[in-house]
Batch of 4 targets.
Target 1
Amino acid sequence: MKRGGWLAAWFCLCWIAALAWPTGAEGEKEKTERFVVVTTDEVNVRQGPGVPYRSVAIVHRGETYASVAEEGGWMKIRWKSGQIGWLAATYAAPVERMEKVTVDKLRLRQQPRFDGRVIGYLWQGDQVAVIQEEGKWKKVVSDDAVGWVAASYLTAVEAAGAAQTGVVTVDSLNVRTAPTLEAERIGRLGQGDGVEIVAAKRGWYQIKTRSGLEGWAVAEYIKTDGKQAPGADNEDAASAMAVEARFASLSKQAPGSYMYSWTRAPIQVLAGKTIVLDAGHGGKDGGAQSADGIMEKALTIKTAERLKQKLEKLGARVVLTRTGDDYVPLSARVAAARLYQADAFISLHYDSAEDPAASGITVYYYDRFADYGLAQSFQGPFSQLAALPFRGVAFGDYYVLRENEQPSVLLELGYLSNRSDAATAATDGYQEAVTTAIAAAVKQYFE
Ligand SMILES: [Zn+2]
C-alpha cells in the first residue's frame, strides 16, 4: 500500500474504532447481533466497510455469520473465532430462522410456485437459512443456490446444541473428514457404538464419540433415538448456528486443512497454506556483519532453509524468495508474496545497532489489520526461547512489509553487532530453536 493510502486507511481505522467501541456500550452491542447468510457463490470479507479495504477472507453461499453492525450498505460480521470483517450487504441476507429439510429431493424453485423453474434439490436433514416467506413458500439459502421451497417440507431446527444421540447399526462404519465418500477416513465405528450427532447433511451425520473421534458417517447406518445426548451443552440456537457456520466455512477449505482442523492431529495443520519465506539480503547485499565476520545474508538463508523444512512438515507450501547467495530486489520479494498468494510472508533478518549491548529478537509488522495478528502470534513462542531475550512486537516501516498486500512480518533474530548474540545466532542449536519457535507461531496463527 502506498503511504497516502495507508494514511487514509489509518484515518478510517480510527473512525471505525470510534464507531465500534462507543464508551461502555460494547456489551449492549453484542446482544443485538443477528445472523446473516451469504447469498452469492463467494464473496470477500474486508477489513472495513468498502471495496478499498483489504480482503481478509472469502465466505461462501449458505454460510451464516453473526452480524454485529450495519453501515452504508456493509455488514460487520464475526467470521471466524471472534474476528471481525465487513461484507457487502447485497451479498447477504438476514436469517429469519434456520430450518431443516424433512424429505429427500425437495425441489428448490426459482419462484414461489409449483410451476416455478427447478434450480436444485435439498435432502432430508439439510439445514437451510430461511430469508423470506410468502404464503406456503419459504425462500431459503442452501450451499448451492437461493430459491423457494414448499414450507410444509421444512421443520424447525431443534433447540440448538440439542445434540441427538444414535447407535451404529452395522459391523463397521467409516468415519470421514467430510460428508462424502471421497473424504479421508479417520476412524471406524462398530455395531452398537454410541455417537452424538452434531449435524446432518445430505444423508450424512456429523458425529462425535466419547473417545473424542469427530467426523462424518453415513446417516443410514446410525439409528437415532431422539434423546438429547448426555452432557450436551444447552447452548442457544444462535451459538448452534455459529457452529454450523464455522463448519460450513471449514468444509470449503482445502481438504487437508479441513481434515486436520477436525482431528486436531499435530501434523499437517498448515495444509493448504502458502508461506513465503524471505531470507534477507543476498548477493552483493551482505546485510549486517558481526565482528567475527558472520554475514547476515549467510545466516538468513540458513534460517530460511531450516524453517522451510519445518513448515513443510506441518503441511504448508513454502516458497523461498531466494535459494542461493543471490541478490533479489525488495520489489521482487514482495512480488513473490503476491504471485503465490501467500497466506503469510515472513522476512528473516539479523539485527545491528550502534550500541554493542543491544540484544535479542524483535518482530516487526506494518499493517495494523493485516499483519498484527501474525506478529502477535510470535509473542508466546519467542518469549519462551531461552537463548536470546525477546524484545517484543513493534511497528516497522520496512519496504517488504509496507508494499506487501499479504499478511507479513519481519523478524530480527538477534544482533550481529552484539558479540554474544552473534555467536549464539550462528549455532545449530539456536537455528533449531528459533525455527521451531517460528513454526510454532505460524501454526498458532492459522489455528
Ligand atoms: Zn537485514
Target 2
Amino acid sequence: MGTSNIQSRRQLLAIKIVWAILFILIGIGIVFYCRYHGLFLPNWVIWEMNQSDLGNNKRIQLANKKLSYYQDDTLLWESEKDWKISKYLITDIDEDDQDEVIMLLWNRGDYGDYHPIWEKPDKINYYEHLYVFNLEDNRLERQWMSSRLLPLIKELEIGKENTLVAKDPEGVPTTWKWITWGFTAINP
Ligand SMILES: [Ca+2]
C-alpha cells in the first residue's frame, strides 16, 4: 500500500515536471516569436500614415508601417516586409539636386550596411534605424543604411540648412547634417 502510494506520488511529480518544462518551452517559444516578428516595439513610437504627391501621377504612401511608391495604380517599389516604418521625409539631403527618401524604421538586426568583422551582429531582435534611399523615376534605390540608432528617435523633421532635427523619446533634440557619407551631429 505504502509503496504504491510513493510510486503514484512519483508518477504525479514526474507528470508535473514534464508539464512545467513544456510550459516553459512554449513560453520561451512565444517570447522568441514575438521578438523575432517585432511585436515588442516601444509604445512611444508614432506610426504615421500619410502620402506625398510627387507629380506625374506618382506618389509615396506610408500605411500600416509599409512604404509604397506608385505611379497611378501601378506599384513601382515597396519596402521589405520585415521593415516597420514609422515615418518618412523627402528632401535632397546630400544636395546633389536629386531627392532622397529618408525612412525612420524598425528592422531586424543591429547593423546597417556594414558591421565590424570582429563583432557578431544580432540578426534576431528589432532595432531602430535610419535609411536613405534615392528617389529614382521608377524605384527607390538604397543609398545608406544606419546601424541601430542611439539615441533613439521619436520625432524627426527637416531643419534649417537641410539638416535633420531629431528628438529622442524624452524630447531631447539633436541636429544632424549629411556629411559626405552619413549623418554627423552638429550644434543646433
Ligand atoms: Ca540628393
Target 3
Amino acid sequence: MEFDNSIILAVFLGMLLLLVILFLGVMIAGALAPRPSRGAPLIASEDGHFEVAGKRISCSHCGGSEFSVNQILLNTWLLSLFRIDWLDASASVLTCVKCGQLTWFNQDSAKVDE
Ligand SMILES: [Zn+2]
C-alpha cells in the first residue's frame, strides 16, 4: 500500500496545528488561574495616600506622600509573541504627584474609605 505525500503532509500539519492549539490552551489556562498572594495589600485612601504593611508610602526622592496609581502589564515574551500579553500579570505603579518618580508594587491596589 502506497501513501501519497500530500496525505502525509496533511497529517503532519494537522498534528502540528493540534500541538499549537494545546500549547496556547495551556498558556491561557495558566494565565487565567488564580494567582497566589503577592505581598501585603497596597491600600489607597481617598486623599491620594497609600499604605503597605502598615507603613505609609513616601517618595524616596522628594519625600512626598501623594501619589496617583496605574496598573501596568508585566509583559512576557511568550504571551507577547502570540499577542495575548493582556493575560500577563500586572503591577501597581505609584506616581509621585510632586516630582513624578515611579514606585512599583507587585500587588494590586485596594481602595479603603476613611
Ligand atoms: Zn517625589
Target 4
Amino acid sequence: MAIDFSVDAEFQQQIDWVEEFVRQEVEPLDVFVRMGTDANGQPLDRAGSRALRGYIKSLQTRVQEQGLWGFHLGPELGGPGLGQVKLCLLNEILGRTRMGPTVFGCAAPDTGNMELLAHNGTEAQKEKYLKPSMAGELRSAYAMTEPHAGEPGEFRCNAVREGDEWVLNGEKWFVSNAVAADFLIVMAITAPDKPLLERASMFIVETNHPGVEIVRNIHTFGTSNTSMTDDNTQVRRGGHGYIRFTDVRLASDALLGKEGGGFVGSQTRLSGGRIHHAMRAVGVCTKALDMACERALSRRSKGERLADKQMVQADLADSYIQLKQFRLHVLYTAWLIDTTGAYTREIRKEIAAVKITAAKVNHDIIYRTIHLHGSLGMSNETQLGDMWMSAPFMGVMDGSTESHKENLAKLMLREYAPSEDLFPTYHLPKLQAAAQEKFNRVLEEFGAGG
Ligand SMILES: Cc1cc2nc3c(=O)[nH]c(=O)nc-3n(C[C@H](O)[C@H](O)[C@H](O)COP(=O)(O)OP(=O)(O)OC[C@H]3O[C@@H](n4cnc5c(N)ncnc54)[C@H](O)[C@@H]3O)c2cc1C
C-alpha cells in the first residue's frame, strides 16, 4: 500500500515551467485582454486584435514545444496523456488565470466536446471535427440547457427522423462560446416515450447550417466581453448563446454516438468537465488566499496589522483549512479516475461531492478575501469581482448544487440497507444483548482454565 504525496522530479520541472510561464506571460495577458486598449488608450482596432491573436498563437506554440498542449488528452488523441492527478496539479496553476486554458489548449467547452468526440465519434467524425479541434483550428460549443429547463426530463428540443435525415427543432440556452463556435454538439429528444436515459441523442451541428439562429448572446454580470473573434464586433464576443433551431435538416452522420445514448454519453463530458472545474477552483481559491495573506500583512487598523487581529487570523485559518481539504478531495478523486480509468459509480459520487464543495469553498474563501480588503475589495481595481462570480457559477453550471446533492445522497444510500426491525442496528439494547451473549461464552471459555 502506497500513499505518496510527492511529485516526480521530471514532472516537477514541468510544473515549474508552467508556474513561471503563467506568471510571466499569462497573468499579464489576462490583465491586457480585459483592458483591450492600444498605446493611446483606445480600444484595439481590427489590426490590434489580429496582433494580439498572433501573440496568443505564439504562446500556444511555446506550450506545444513544451509538450503540454491539450494536456487533458491521452496520447491516442495527440495529448501528453498525463492522467488526472497531474492534470490537477497543472490545472490549479491555470485556474489563477482566465486565458490560461486557451493558451494551453484545454479551454472549456472545447475540452469536453473533444472528450465526447473521442469516446462517441465515428472515424469520419473524429477526422472532421476532433483533429482540427485538437489543433485549435475549430471551436465548438455544447448545447444542452434549454430556456425553459436545465433538467433533462423537461427538455423539448427534438430531432425527428425523416427518410435519411434528422430534422431538428427547438431552443437551447446559455451555450458558452456559441458565437465563436464552428460546430455545436446538441442534445435533442429523439424518443420522448422511452425511459429518461434512452430519450435523447447527440448531434453535431455546424453553426452555419441553415435553420441555426443565435437569437442573442447572453453575458453574465460581473464579467466583460473578452473573447476575440475575427470580425471583432462587440456582439460576437464571448458569452453564452441563446440558440433556435428551425427545421434544421441533418444528414444521418450528424448523429454522435448511439441513437438514444445522449444522456448516458454526455456523462463522460460532464463528469470530466466537473472535475476539471474543481481543479481550477483550487487555483482561484489559492490566489484569493494569497491575496488575503498579503493584505493582512500590509494593512493596519488601530495601531496594528490586520494580520495581528485574532478574528482576521481565524478567517485566514478557516480559508486555509477549507482549501487544503478541498484540494486533497479533488486530488483523491483524480487519483480514483486514474486508477479505474472510468467514471464508475464510486467516482461519480466523489465528483458530485467536489462539484458541490467547489461552489462552497469559492464562496467562503473569496468572500473572506473581499471582506478583508474592505472598500478596495469591492472596487473594480482588483480581480476579486471576477473571482467572486466563480462561486455562483460553480453552484449552477453543469448542474445545480441541489441536484448534485440529491445525486450524491442517492449514490451514498446505495451502500446502505434499512434495519430489519423496528430499532436501528446500532440500538444499544440490541448491541448489549448481543454482547452479553458473546461474552457469556467468553467468560465461560476464559474462566474454565483459571
Ligand atoms: C457560466 C455558465 C456556463 C454555462 N455553459 C453552458 C453550456 O455551455 N451549455 C449548456 O448547455 N449549458 C450551460 N450552462 C447552463 C447550466 O448547465 C445550467 O444553468 C444548469 O444545468 C442549471 O440549469 P438552469 O439554469 O436551468 O437552472 P434550474 O434547473 O432552473 O435550477 C435553478 C435552481 O432550482 C433549484 N433546483 C434545481 N434542481 C433542483 C433539485 N433537484 N433539487 C432542489 N432544487 C433544485 C436550485 O436552487 C437551482 O439553482 C451554463 C451555466 C453557467 C452559469
